[in-house]
Amino acid sequence: MIVNLLIKMKKLLYISGILTFFVLMSFMYVDFFSSMTKVDYVDGSKTLKFTTKMNTSHISDAIKINPNTAGFEAEVKKYVNNNFDVFVNGAPKTITFTGSQVSGETVWVYFETGGVSDINTLKIKNTILLSAFPKQINLVNIAYKGSQKTMNFQRGKEVNEVSF
Length: 164
Hints:
Elements: H1 2-26, E1 34-42, E2 47-55, H2 56-63, H3 72-83, E3 84-88, E4 91-93, E5 96-103, E6 106-113, E7 121-126, E8 137-144, E9 147-153, E10 159-163
Parallel strand pairs: 1-8
Antiparallel strand pairs: 1-2, 2-6, 3-4, 3-7, 5-6, 7-10, 8-9
């Protein structure tokens, strides 16, 4: 009787150990898809400066080019130009790419738009990595004349607008 009870307890411990292992393994690999953009208004030059942070492997997968190759920066520039639009007070603004930097698992992308004297509304269309990764979330933090605003972008909500 005691032997049967010990065998059943051993089986129960074995099964619960296996279940615990699989539950823990399901949490081991979760890739988080996001980009973050900081927008700073420079009053002296009437410029909006953008700094975007992306995961190196994610942008590399999206543009299908190795980040260690010479053409990577040109492809990132083209990609950002095709996936990020800015409208100030309803008028579209031209984005000028000013550079990028690969730093390990992160790609930093720098661009700007000039001729911005006053902002009543700022509308942004941000589709960075949304077509490549369905769960992608893009955040944009804006600093304008002492005011801070945050925008969120994801599939189905690619355009956002804030007022100042």
